[in-house]
Design brief:
The complex is a heterodimer of chains A (about 375) and B (about 350).
Chain A: H1 7-13, H2 18-30, E1 31-33, H3 43-56, H4 65-73, E2 76-77, E3 90-91, H5 117-129, H6 139-147, E4 156-157, E5 165-166, H7 167-180, H8 188-197, H9 215-228, H10 231-234, H11 237-248, H12 267-277, H13 286-295, H14 314-326, E6 335-336, E7 341-342, H15 343-362
Helix pairs in contact in A: 2-3, 3-5, 3-14, 5-7, 7-9, 9-12, 12-14
Chain B: E1 64-66, H1 69-84, H2 89-101, H3 106-118, H4 123-136, H5 141-154, H6 160-170, H7 175-188, H8 194-204, H9 209-221, H10 228-244, H11 249-259, H12 270-280, H13 284-299, H14 309-330, H15 335-350
Helix pairs in contact in B: 1-2, 2-3, 3-5, 4-5, 6-7, 8-9, 9-11, 10-11, 12-13, 13-14, 14-15
Classes of the chains: A mainly alpha (about 375), B mainly alpha (about 350).
Pfam families (chain A): Prenyltrans
Protein name (chain A): Geranylgeranyl transferase type-1 subunit beta
GO cellular component, one term (chain A): CAAX-protein geranylgeranyltransferase complex
Chain lengths: ~375, ~350
């Protein structure tokens, strides 16, 4: 297809339009039309895509950090006076339940208000990206809320009232524990068992045991094990080599998520980051990957779509940038492949944790 | 969208032309009564006892979705019901409207389930309802979870396989559908016809990776893969499909996956069969499979006393040839990977340099 185009068009196609992407994320953070209604309960994840995207673009200066931090804290489900709701604490995806806006405790008693594990994860990420020190996060409450979500088989629900349970929420849980530097939020051994049980006969990971292997779930599996510091304990060298092979076979031009499926921009990150964590991303074809990602760039409104000539959305816009960052696109910040935030934001997390450990140590308390 | 009417007790005399057939209207305006006009909940008499609860994003909302009046009205009343934890038929009816506006709102679905139980609603009717919703929105997590809950309450999976088959006929790789199917089969032990179902799908599309996965799922949970006759049957099945469509990663992944733990080189005659196939039905997957056979032979050589140094050297040479062929000709997109594998294999066999180490990232 490319050979038939003129040289000029080829150049156009590979031109990375930084400013368009900045404006795309800025607009995302403002107002979305009603047809985006299905994103209501997950608005905090959309904020994360936009903020982390702007961070990768080194363009966080375009937003008002303070007001954004306040809004994120308004989504925290805090303990009530009597702490009866600890198992429901964490962060909400949005104000959709109708709790009156508040950035302080104590929590409001409401029969249906609870956190959502993916929102707690992206909420914490968003706060650290904005440079917040997490001092207003009730960490113990978050961890109590997290413990309430884990099942006997090691997987997690998304919400305490019940939902589907699978490997995605193990990744969210692992990220939360990692950032809060506290693994009391989960039974790690059980989580590892669920992960290794999800390894398919073809050496990718499915959403659970027996299920079809998939680039997204493979990322969740490997990234979780890395965050836990248990990659080589949980998987043998032979298994790791086989997983490397499954992952690297996903490259077709860009990457797809399952054998015999079409390529999709977001897998340039899900599979690319997995390969990076397994130390073999360097052996992929950077040119073809880059060409595909840029072919899904929307030259008018900015952002990236899953396929060429499709509508861009915040998720693909963010993961497209991360995919480019992995291959070393010059104007982009490096992304921490397991935590899925910039290296810069990750260093902020490390500094915070250092501070917490020092203050715990100086008071003679056990961390 | 059908509207609900709030018919007041008062009938108002119209000053309209009596030629027109006009019905009693429900408000004091000089208007025709239109039974199809949608009425906001805030204007419905039977909802007047409830104070609507708006969303409150504070002074500086982020990623605000610009809802229409109708949307806000429905959800303002949903939030009011939720706050009071009202258990009523009107609440149940409203959840359906809320779902129509946003079927991804998991709180609405949860509340609907609470009401289904509190009001002891007809679960068979709920099955019909959720069937229709999934047909419209088959890639939504909440609808499949809801269906699973209803099936569990009814303890009746009898409609499931047919329903899922219908969804798969529209998208044969729908991950939610396959997941639900596996749950139903495992939970209610509905294994009997599944292999047949898989083969039908593979006949329609031999490259359907989900169907290959399902094949493995069924066999591993029923007969297992230990019996040699069964393994041979599966090998033959794979090779037949590969002959029909050589460039099919799924078939090769299945073949390798089935045999990799016992060791590819331990299957008598397999290498030869694949080498024959190489002449007429070559693909990157076939070549990678050969490489894995040779690698397995080299790894297990320490256990076998009857492999001469000469044989091992030959096997290594063949493996490296395959890497070279893949890197430079047959799978060039993965050139660097195949060259890396070749180097690693050489190092492992050479025992001088260690293979490149892997660092855990944390």
């Amino acid at each position: 297809m490319a050979e038939e185009e003129s040289q000029f068009e080829e150049f156009e196609q590979i031109d990375f339009l930084r400013d368009r992407h900045v404006r795309f994320f800025q607009r995302t953070l403002q107002v979305l039309p009603e047809r985006y209604a299905s994103l209501e309960t997950t608005r905090l994840t959309i904020i994360f895509f936009a903020l982390s995207g702007l961070d990768v673009l080194d363009a966080l200066d375009v937003i008002d950090r303070k007001t954004m931090i306040e809004w994120i804290y308004s989504l925290q489900v805090l303990p009530t006076e009597d702490e009866a709701n600890l198992s429901r604490c964490g962060f909400r995806g949005s104000s959709h339940i109708g709790i009156p806006y508040s950035t302080k405790g104590p929590g409001v008693l409401h029969p249906y208000d609870s956190g959502h594990v993916a929102m707690t994860y992206t909420g914490l990420c968003s706060l650290v990206i904005l440079g917040d020190d997490l001092s207003r996060v009730d960490k113990q409450a978050c961890l109590a809320g997290l413990r309430a979500l884990q099942l006997e088989d090691g997987s997690f629900y998304a919400v305490p009232e019940g939902s589907e349970n699978d490997i995605r929420f193990i990744y969210c849980a692992a990220s939360i524990c990692y950032m809060l530097d506290d693994w009391s939020g989960m039974d790690m051994q059980k989580a590892i068992e669920y992960i290794t049980g999800s390894l398919s006969y073809d050496n990718g990971f499915g959403q659970g045991a027996g299920r079809e292997s998939h680039g997204g779930w493979t990322y969740c599996a490997i990234a979780s094990l890395c965050l836990m510091g248990r990659l080589e304990e949980a998987l043998s060298q032979r298994e790791l080599d086989r997983i490397r092979r499954w992952c690297i076979m996903r490259q077709q031009s860009g990457f797809h998520g399952r054998p015999n499926k079409p390529v999709d921009t977001c897998y340039s990150f899900w599979v690319g980051a997995t390969l990076e964590l397994l130390d073999v991303f360097q052996y992929t074809n950077f040119d073809k990957n880059r060409s595909f990602i840029l072919s899904t760039q929307d030259r008018l409104v900015g952002g990236f779509a899953k396929w060429p000539d499709s509508h861009p959305d915040p998720l693909h816009a963010y993961l497209g940038l991360c995919g480019l960052s992995l291959i070393g696109e010059p104007s982009l910040r490096k992304v921490h492949p397991a935590l899925n935030i910039t290296q810069r934001a990750f260093e902020h997390v490390q500094q915070l944790q250092q501070t917490w450990r020092e203050s715990a140590g100086s008071c003679g308390r056990q961390h | 969208m059908s509207g609900a009417e709030d018919l007041s007790n008062k009938s108002v005399e119209l000053k309209e032309d009596k030629q027109f057939d006009v019905e009693a209207e429900d408000n004091l305006e000089d208007d025709y009564f239109d039974p199809t006009r949608y009425l906001f909940y805030r204007d419905r008499k039977e909802w007047a006892d409830l104070e609507p609860v708006p969303q409150d994003d504070g002074p500086n909302p982020v990623v605000k979705i610009a809802y229409s009046e109708k949307f806000s009205d429905v959800f303002d009343y949903f939030r009011a019901l939720l706050k009071n934890d009202e258990r009523s038929d009107r609440a149940f009816a409203l959840t359906a409207e809320a779902i129509e506006l946003n079927a991804a709102n998991y709180t609405v679905w949860h509340y609907r389930r609470v009401l289904l139980q509190a009001l002891t609603k007809d679960l068979r009717e709920e099955m019909r309802y959720i069937t229709a919703i999934i047909e419209e929105q088959p890639k939504n997590y909440q609808v499949w979870h809801h269906r699973r809950m209803v099936v569990e309450w009814l303890k009746d999976p009898s409609e499931e396989l047919e329903f899922i088959a219908d969804i798969l006929s529209q998208d044969a790789k729908n991950y939610h559908a396959w997941q639900h199917r596996q749950w139903v089969i495992q939970e209610y032990k509905l294994w009997d016809s599944e292999l047949e179902f898989v083969e039908t799908l593979l006949e329609e599309d031999v490259r359907n990776n989900s169907a290959w996965n399902q094949r493995h799922f069924v066999i591993s949970h029923t007969t297992g893969f230990s019996e040699p006759a069964l393994v041979e049957r599966e090998i033959q099945y794979c090779l037949t499909q590969i002959k029909k469509a050589p460039h099919n990663e799924s078939a090769w992944n299945y073949l390798k996956g089935m045999l990799q733990d016992q060791g590819l080189s331990s299957v008598p005659g397999l290498l030869e069969r694949v080498l024959r196939l190489k002449e007429t039905h070559c693909s990157p997957y076939l070549l990678a499979f050969l490489f894995d056979c040779y690698e397995d032979a080299l790894e297990n050589s320490s256990q076998e006393e009857n492999k001469s140094d000469e044989e091992l050297k030959e096997t290594l040479e063949k493996a490296l040839e395959i890497c070279h062929l893949l890197a430079h000709e047959k799978d060039t997109i993965r050139k660097e990977y195949w060259l890396f594998l070749g180097r690693s294999l050489k190092n492992k066999q050479g025992a001088d340099e260690p293979a490149p180490g892997q660092q855990e990232r944390s």
